[in-house]
Every structure is written in C-alpha cells, then in structure tokens.
Amino acid sequence: MSDGELAKDIGPLAAxxxxxxxxxxxxxxxxxxxxxxxxxxxxxxxxxxxxxIALLTAFSASELGxxxxxxxxxxxxxxxxxxxxxxxxxGWANWLGLAFASAFYMVGFGQYIQQxxxxxxxxxxxxxxxxxxxxxxxxxxxxFIAVNYIGAKETGRLQNVIVVxxxxxxxxxxxxxxxxxxxxxxxxxxxxxxxxxxTGIIFVSYLGFVQITSVxxxxxxxxxxxxxxxxxxxxxxxxxxxxxxxxxxxxxEPGFINxxxxxxxxxxxxxxxxxxxxxxxxxxxxxxxxxxxxxxxSILASSRINFAMGRDGIVSESLNEIHxxxxxxxxxxxxxxxxxxxFIAAGTVETLASMGSVLHLIIYGLLNVGLIVMRxxxxxxxxxxxxxxxxxxxxxxxxxxxxxxxxxxxPVAIGLSGALVVGAVLWYFVYARSRATKEGILSQFxxxxxxxxxxxxxxxxxxxxxxxxxxxxxxxxxxxxxxxxLITLASAVAKQRGGTVVATHIVSVPDQTAxxxxxxxADEIDETSERLLASAKxxxxxxxxxxxxxxxxxxxxxxxxxxxxxxxxxDLVVMGWGPDSHGSPGRAExxxxxxxxAVPCDFLVMRDRGFDPSxxxxxxxxxxxxxxxxxxxxxxxxxxxxxxTLLNVADxxxxxxxxxxxxxxxxxxxxxxxxxxxxxxxxxxAIESAAEDATLLFVGATEEGLLRRLxxxxxxxxxxxxxxxxxxxxxxxxxRGLLERLF
Amino acid sequence: xxxxxxxxxLPVASEEDARTSARALTGHDYGTxxxxxxxxxxxxxxxxxxxxQREQAAEEMFEAARAVLGDVETDVLYGSDVAETIFDAAAxxxxxxxxxxxxxxxxxxxxxxxxxxLHLVTDTDRPVVVLPDDETDTDPPDTDE
Lengths: 743, 145
Fold this sequence. Notes:
Chain B: InterPro entries: Rossmann-like_a/b/a_fold (IPR014729), UspA (IPR006016). The complex is a heterodimer. By secondary structure, chain A is of the alpha/beta class.
C-alpha cells in the first residue's frame, strides 16, 4: 500500500457513521415535542420533507466530494467554484453554523443530564439566576472542547460504537412503538405553513452529512464510499426520524405529548410508556450519547473548515497552527470553543437550532449553485466519479428548496444570518481580498468569455476577484513570435519581486465582426489561445514563477489591455508593440480618450528585436519614468548579471554637473556599479550612437500618457525605430487620489 | 564516523523539535539522514486534524531540519501507533540508529499525549540514540568523541 493510501483509513461504515452520528443528535432527542405540538401528525411529514431537502444537497455534495476530495468540504467546493467572496460567506456560515449547532447539541445534552439527575430549580447567585440546563451545557461544551484541544484518537472510534448503539436504541423503540401503534391515536394534521415552519425548526437534525465531505481526503476509495456514505446517511437518518415520529404520534394517546410538563423530555416519556423504566433509561442514555457525539464531530469538522479557509487566505493562517505536542489545530479549536460557549450563554434552544439551520441552508444553496457552475464551466480537472442524477433538475431543486426553507425559519435567525452574510462579504473586501489566492471557476468562466457575457456580469466578476496581495505582471500576448521574449522579461521581474505572471491572450477582431460572430470562431480562437498560453506557461515555468492565463476577445485590442490591467489589479504590464502588434497605429478611435488617461499601472512596452539583457543602456534625465526603468534594469541585473550603462545627455560645458547628477542618481537607484556615460549634443543622436553597443535600450516616458499615445499611434518616437537593439519603454503609474484609485 | 550514525532515521514531532534534533545531530559525525514525521491516524475514524493540514505542518518541520542539515531526505509516514510506524520505517530503510532529542514535558502531559520517546526506547529492535539539545544544555560535559 502506498503512503497516500495509508492516509486513507476511513472505511465505508466509518464514513457512514460520521454522517449518521453527527445528524442523530439533539434534533431527534429534543425537538419531537415541538414538532408534534405544532404540526400534529404532519410532524412526520416535516421530518420527511427535511430529509428530502437534505437528500437533494447530498447528491450535489457527493459529486463535488468525489471530484475534489479535499479538507474543508462544503466550504472548499463553494470557494473553488464561486470564488473567494462566496467562499468567505460559505466559510463563515459553515464555521459559525457548526458552532451554533454544537451549542444547540450541548443544550440538548444539558436537558438530558438534568432529567437524569433531576435538577430542576434554577441556581441563583445573588441577582443572577442561571438555568441549570445552560450550566450543564457550558460544562459539557468545555469538556468536549478540551477533548478536541488535546486530541484523542480514541474518540473517533468511540463515535462508531456510539452510532451503532443509537441506531439500536431507536430501532427497538420504533419496533415496540409500531406494535402498539393505532392510527386513531394520530393527532390532527396541520396546514402547509405550520408544517413548513416545523420543517425549518427540525432541519437542524440534518446538518451532519456534509461533514463527511470535510474528511473526504481520509476516506478509502472515495469515488465509491463517499457518495454511499453521504446519500446513505441521509436516507437512513430520514427513515429513522420518520419512524420515531410515527411511533411518538401513533403509539400514545393523542394529547399525551402536549400534556407533559415542560421539564420532561417527550421521547423519554414515550419510551417509558412503551418499554417501561428500561426504555426511559435507554432513551436518556441515547440522548446523552447522541448530543455528545454530534457536538464532538462538529467541533472536529469546524477546524477542517478553518484550515481550508486559512489555506485560501480567507482567515489568518496563524489560526491553523498545529500544537507541537498534541498535534491538534488547537487555536482553531479554542476559538470555535469560545464561540460555542458564547452562543450557549446568549441563545435560546430555538435560536441556536434555527441559526444552525439557516447558516447551513445558505451553504447548501451555494453548494448546489457551485455544482452547476462546475458542470457549466467545465474546468479540465473536474472529473467526478459520481454524478448527480437528473442534472440540472436536482441541483436546481436543491438550491431552491434549501434557500426556500429559510423563509419559514424565525425572523430573528434570518436577520442575524443575513447580517453574518453581509459581514462575511465585508470581511472579504476589507480583510481577505488582498490575501485570498484563489480565483473561482465562476469568474474564470465569465472573464474568459468577457464579450459573450453581459457587461454587468463581467464587471461584477472582475470587481470581486482576489488580488492575492502579490506583485502581478500582466503580459498581453497577440503575436506568437514575441511571446517568449515578453514572458521572459515579465518572468524575470516577477521572479525578483516574488510575483505572478498573468499571460493574457488578447484576441482582436475587426469592428465589422460582431463579437458574437467571433464567438463562432471560438474553436479556432481557443486553439490559438491554448497554444500561445501553453508556451507562455512553459516559458514562465523555467523561472519558477506562478503563471495565470486568460483569453480576452475584443474589438480594440490595446484598449482591452488597459481595461484588463485595471480589472486584474496588475502592478506591471509588459507588452509588445510594433507594426504587427496590438491594433493598427493611427486609428482614429484610438486617439479619442488619450488626452485624459494615463496608464493604469506601471507599463513596459517592448519593441522586440530579440531579448538579450547582457548590455543594458539606460538614458536618464531623472524623473519618475526612469525610476521605473532603473528598477527594472536593476532586477534584470540581479537575474542576468547584466552590464548596465547610464547615459545622460548634457549641454556642452555642463559635463561636470551631468556627471555629478548621474553618480548621485546611480547611487540612489542601487546602480552604483553601472558604467556612466555623458554625451553632448542632440539627445536622440546621442542615444542612438550609445545604443550601438547595447543589446537592450530602456527609455523612460518623458511625460504622462506618452505610451498611450505612442501605442495608439498618435505620436512617433524615431529613436525606437532607428536603433537596432530591443527597446523597452517604461511609463510609471502616477498615484492619484484615493477616489481615483478605487474606481 | 562511528558506524552507529551511519544511516540515521530522525523522527520529528514539531517544527521546534525538528530544529532541536537537527542541531543536536550536527554536533556529531554522521552519514546519511532521513527526517520523518508521523501523521498519527485514528485508524478508521476522523483524525484530530486533517491529513492535508498535518502534511503541511510536516513540510514546515522538514524545512526547519533542512535549514540546519542541508538537503536531506524527508518522508511523511502514516500510522496509528507513532513508535511502531517509526520502527517500520527504520527497518525499511535499514537505519543504523533512530535519533531523538528529549522533549521534556511533565508527567501529566506525557500521560495524556502518550510518551512516544519511552515507547521508542523500550520496544526497539535497533539502537536509539538520545542526543541532548545543545541550546538548553548550558553546561555541556566535556566528553571525548
């Protein structure tokens, strides 16, 4: 067995018990009374409808799980498919949803302990009076947090035993109940809205199956076992719930449950009638085990989500530090634990349950949407072993029913969850956007088809893209001939700055061709794009820098470059330019907005005559644009050991001043080892003659907007055409006011 | 070089442990080193931390070891019994010795985490060399190699 397989030690039964054990918890042991008193015999329907909604999402979760068996489960799929903004929502909702659910499980645990030991009076300390249930819940939560903080591998195996015991207890209960069931006992049925309201409340009983996907990487043969465990656990649990509810409704006289004193637990009392004291004791034990195992599994799962969020830059990686001795993600568990204690102290049973449900329903909705995006976006690496039946009906229904059920939950929970979603979006923009490293399949899909998609969609997709917080060098590519040289220059800079190269194939189509028409040639374009971008990738790889690739179809190709530079948060654009490059120089429309716009980031424009950085000539008279070319020259020097010559063209008789200036300037720009050269006379002639010895000439733009006009063809720089070496023109981005930077 | 340290298996449990153990080893003549980290598996149940997370942590430990020892062979191992997994790895590589540094910790901590070092020493089928941590050893005894 290979090491990779050794890491996978969760068999099919263990995978199933993760789902069943997490789901069978406080939901079925605490909520039947509420369900029956509010929905009558339709409580059975409510539990079945809840199971059906969960099942739809279980199909989607199974497909995504077999395609991406990664730590983090639902969060990971949403982030991968829909990008980090939705990832932030899913991550926070999943994390907090688990904390709320754990708090709910522990309150259920508290109720069972209270029943067993008969604690009923409130404990009063001065003016503060604490409900004993809450006190026990807090104590129990602290215990399970501590167990996970220290980490005991035994708890995992114990879970399997607990689940078998639980299913056994509930099976005996329903069999006995079935024997004594009498349809005449069934309470009256409730209306649609009451039934749906109960479905919303009890949905907290169906939160466990997605947790199976969060340990997908540890499951043996996930292609087969993961769908079986996810779907199987939902089916099994739904059947158990429906039978338990049927027993409770039909095996005891109508009105029995409503007539119970509030401190008694309905399931326990029904078991007492059916099976005597043994039944009550078994049910009390079952309730304890069920709530404990649910809480334990949820705390464990939440640290996986934290890990996945940290890896994608949505939360700080320091949260996921592994304890040097316990080998547990102790910080993540401590923070989650703190939240659980806070929620227990602050919330009522109903709030905790409904918060857990709403937040999970949001994730389920996003998960189904994510599946649709993965199917439609067809990323090459998406190859699930299991596929949902009746696509796209199942995921669409899954989305609608999950999000639709939220409406029936208490307004307080909806409001709080809405606030959390808004908070998660703000979190993304304020904290995570500059740190997040992953782009979703959705935005890749939209952006790669910029012109087929409505503008609003494209703008929205670019607006929320992560910028990774690192240095991004965009390389617009059109002519395959110059691809290698441009990528080489860009990669050398990116390597020195620890940044990323974004190779962008700009497909220019004539104005006469509708963009939709161009899309018909999509195959042809795709092929050229693929070839061009693949070789760009190869070239950049030789430098070991990260590469991203994009294709943009546009009428005005260099306008597209400016726009793309803005929308992709490029820090530097390295583009080629020549008679056969982007757009035809001198086109009327290109001059339209040249007067107002300068470059959106630093720009290097290369007139490529072969890339050879061995002897660099850098003429300068100071100014921000030669600051840029100087810094690039310095990076190339570090990469290639280039010989750099600085040139200043002075008036006759000012040679000394010029030399002093050049020396100071070289020093200031870290180029003290460069050769200094002073010439007199006509600037262009001087540069041209100096360039005869050079392999690469850097020219800083002398004024703002120069490059735009040059590339647009509205001015001509003779020097670029007259020299024989490759020329790189640099124009620095002028930092504007905050408002302008934002838009 | 003594034959004992000819082919060393160096199990590490944390980044700090990796640094300490690697530093301790550099004080001696040694041949080849394989740095390993055991990801403790729950054997049929979810682990206390995700495998990917543990592998990432292992990579950080290996980095710390490489910073001291240079480019050495590393391996992530998986097993529900840490000591047994280390023995198996040592047998597989025909290691001349397993090298560890004491990690301290009081009885309680050792009780709840399981004392791997003790298990290593008591159940071993090959030499286990316990090297003192150079940094904490403020008054090193002057011994001749």
